[in-house]
Write a structure and sequence with these properties.
Elements (H helix, E strand, L loop, with lengths): L1 E2 L4 H14 L8 E8 L3 E9 L4 E10 L6 E6 L5 H4 L6 H6 L8 E3 L9 E5 L14 E12 L4 E8 L8 E11 L15 H28 L5 H30 L4 H26 L11 H28 L12 H27 L4 H27 L6 H23 L15 H7 L47 E3 L9 E3 L14
Parallel strand pairs: 1-8
Antiparallel strand pairs: 2-10, 3-9, 4-8, 4-10, 5-6, 5-9, 7-8, 11-12
Helix pairs in contact: 1-6, 1-7, 4-5, 4-10, 5-6, 6-7, 6-8, 7-8, 8-9, 9-10
C-alpha cells in the first residue's frame, strides 16, 4: 500500500477543426503500450486517486537482461513530483525522494514477492525477443491501493538506474480506478460528476432552445425574427451539440476506461463555435444592428471580420497547443499557455469594444435604454467571466478538483447568458426591454432609395413602428411573460397617419404585441 503524507472567420475556424480532427491521440485510465527509450527514467501516467478505494493494477514485461527496472509512485507535493519532473536530477536522485517504507518503489524482479514477477520464455516472434538472451523475460502482475488524507494526484514512472544498459525496454499495462461504480470507477477524482453535470445541462439547454423556437415563431409571425435572434438560436444549437459529444465521450469513458479523445475535442470545438457566435451577437447588438440600424458600415464590418478572424485563429492555436504541446506529466489548465493568455486579452478587447459601441448607440437612441442598460450590465459580467474563471482556477482552486469545478462553472455561465437573452427578447406585453421596433419586412423598404418610407437603413427612426405597441404600457400584465396574441380580426396591416418632422405617412400595424384576444377595426 502506498501511503502519502498530507464567414472568413468561420472558414478559418472550420479549417482548424478539420486539422484538429486529424490529430489522433488518446488519454485513458487504462494505459498500455511498449516503452523503448534510451533514458533510465520515464513518466507513464497520472491519476487522481481517492483515499482507500483508489486502485492500481499493472502488468509489466521486460527482458531479464535489463534488470532491475522499478515502478515509482510519486504524489503531488513539492518534495515529491515537483522535485523530480523536468529537473536536472539524475535517476538515483529521482528515486531518493521516495520512501521505501511507504511502498512507493516496486522492484520488478522475482526477488521482490510483492511485485508478482516471475521469469518466462517468449517466442522469437515477440517484439521483445531481440532484446533478450534466449527469450527470457520478467512477467510482473500485481496491484496497489492508495491511502492519503485527501484525494491526490499520483504520478507513475519507471526507472532503470542499476542496469549497465542505461536504457529501458518494456511492455506495460496499467488500470487505474476509483471504486467499482460506473459513475466513478474509471474517472479520476477531479472528473467526478462531470458526466452527471453535462447530462443536466443538456436537458436545461434543450428547454431553452424549445422556448427560443416558440418565441421565434411568434417573432416570425410579426416579422420581427431578425438575424441577431437567429444567431442566438444558432449559438444554443451548437452548445447542445457540444454537450452531446461530451456526454458520449464521458459515457464511453466510464464504460471502457479508454477515452476517445476525438469526441471530447469535437465537443469543445462546438462549444467554441457557440461562444464565438454569441460574442459576435453581443458586439452586433451593441452597435445597434437590427435594433437601431439595418446594417453595419463597411469599416465596421471590416473591423468585426478582422477581430473574429483573429479570435478564431487564437482558438485554433489553443486547441493545437493542448493536443500537441501540453505536457501530460503536469496538471495544466487549458488557458495556461500563450494562446490562452491571448484569448483572455481578446476577450477584454471585445468587452471594451462592447462598452464603446453601447455608449454611442445610447447617445443617439436614449429611448433604447430599457434594453441596453440591463444588456450592458449582465453581459459585462459575461465578458469578464473568462478572465476571472482563469485566475480563480489557476491560483485558488485545488488541482485535484479543478476540472469538475471549472466544467460546472463554464456551463452555468453559458446557460445564464442564453437564458437572460431569451428573457430580454421575449415578445410579451410585460417586457419593456424588448429591443426590436422595425420589422424584417420593412428593412428592405428602408434600403430602397425610392421607398415609401423616409427612413435610413443605417439609422432607424425612434420607435417608428410601435406607437401602439406594448412598450411603456402601464397596464401590462406581468404574468404573460411569453404570451402573444393568437387572434387578429383581419390580419392585415393598416395605414395610420402620423405627424413627423418629414410629415410622412408611415405603415403601422396597431396589432403588434397586444395581448388581447380580439381587436376591433381602427
Amino acid at each position: 500500500m502506498a501511503t502519502a503524507e498530507r464567414s472568413t472567420p468561420f472558414r478559418t475556424y472550420l479549417s482548424a477543426v478539420l486539422l484538429l480532427l486529424s490529430v489522433q491521440y488518446c488519454q485513458s485510465k487504462v494505459v498500455e503500450g511498449t516503452l523503448n527509450t534510451k533514458e533510465d527514467w520515464e513518466f507513464l501516467a497520472r491519476f487522481c486517486f481517492l483515499s482507500d478505494i483508489g486502485r492500481l493494477r499493472f502488468h509489466f514485461e521486460y527482458p531479464v537482461t535489463y534488470e532491475v527496472e522499478n515502478i515509482l509512485l510519486y504524489y503531488d507535493e513539492p518534495d515529491q513530483w515537483e522535485a523530480v519532473y523536468k529537473t536536472d536530477t539524475d535517476c538515483f536522485e529521482k528515486e531518493a525522494v521516495l520512501k521505501i517504507e511507504n511502498n512507493q518503489i516496486i522492484n520488478l524482479t522475482d526477488k521482490y514477492p510483492w511485485s508478482g514477477c516471475a521469469k518466462k520464455n517468449i517466442h522469437e516472434t515477440d517484439e521483445l525477443y531481440e532484446y533478450t538472451d534466449n527469450g527470457e523475460i520478467y512477467d510482473c502482475k500485481g496491484g496497489r491501493s492508495f491511502k492519503s488524507v485527501r484525494e491526490r494526484w499520483w504520478y507513475i514512472a519507471v526507472s532503470n538506474c542499476l542496469s549497465d544498459k542505461q536504457d529501458m525496454v518494456m511492455r506495460y499495462w496499467l488500470r487505474l480506478t476509483n471504486g467499482e461504480s460506473y459513475w466513478f470507477e474509471h474517472y479520476s477524482a477531479d472528473e467526478f460528476y462531470i458526466l452527471q453535470t453535462n447530462i443536466t445541462f443538456i436537458c436545461l439547454f434543450t428547454i431553452v432552445f424549445m422556448l427560443s423556437v416558440y418565441v421565434a415563431m411568434a417573432l416570425k409571425e410579426r416579422h420581427f425574427l431578425h438575424t441577431t435572434y437567429k444567431m442566438f438560436m444558432f449559438s444554443i444549437v451548437f452548445y447542445i451539440l457540444c454537450l452531446f459529444f461530451l456526454c458520449i465521450y464521458y459515457g464511453d469513458y466510464g464504460h471502457t476506461g479508454i477515452g476517445l479523445e476525438g469526441l471530447k475535442t469535437t465537443g469543445r470545438i462546438f462549444q467554441s463555435i457557440s461562444n464565438l457566435t454569441f460574442l459576435l451577437l453581443l458586439i452586433l447588438l451593441a452597435k445597434g444592428f437590427t435594433v437601431t440600424r439595418g446594417r453595419i458600415s463597411h469599416s465596421g464590418s471590416v473591423k468585426i471580420a478582422v477581430f473574429m478572424t483573429v479570435y478564431c485563429i487564437v482558438y485554433a492555436v489553443l486547441f493545437l497547443l493542448e493536443a500537441v504541446a501540453f505536457d501530460p506529466g503536469l496538471v495544466l489548465y487549458v488557458y495556461e499557455s500563450p494562446a490562452g493568455y491571448g484569448l483572455i486579452a481578446l476577450q477584454i478587447i471585445g468587452w471594451l469594444w462592447f462598452i464603446y459601441a453601447i455608449f454611442f448607440t445610447l447617445k443617439h437612441y436614449p429611448e433604447k435604454g430599457s434594453f441596453y442598460y440591463p444588456f450592458f450590465i449582465f453581459y459585462t459580467f459575461w465578458f469578464l467571466a473568462l478572465p476571472i474563471v482563469v485566475l480563480v482556477s489557476t491560483y485558488l482552486i485545488d488541482k485535484w478538483i479543478r476540472e469538475k469545478v471549472v466544467n460546472a462553472i463554464d456551463h452555468t455561465i453559458a446557460f445564464l447568458a442564453m437564458t437572460f437573452f431569451l428573457i430580454l427578447t421575449r415578445p410579451s406585453a410585460a417586457n419593456k426591454n424588448f429591443p426590436y421596433h422595425v420589422r424584417t419586412s420593412q428593412i428592405g423598404v428602408l434600403d430602397t432609395p425610392n421607398g415609401t418610407l423616409s427612413e435610413n437603413i443605417d439609422a432607424f427612426s425612434h420607435h417608428a413602428y410601435d406607437v401602439n405597441g406594448f412598450i411603456g404600457n402601464p397596464n401590462s400584465n406581468f404574468t404573460e411573460l411569453f404570451t402573444v396574441s393568437s387572434n387578429v380580426s383581419n390580419g392585415n396591416s393598416q395605414f395610420v397617419k402620423t405627424t413627423t418632422s418629414e410629415d410622412t405617412t408611415r405603415k403601422v400595424d396597431p396589432n403588434i404585441f397586444t395581448t388581447s384576444q380580439t381587436h376591433s377595426e381602427a
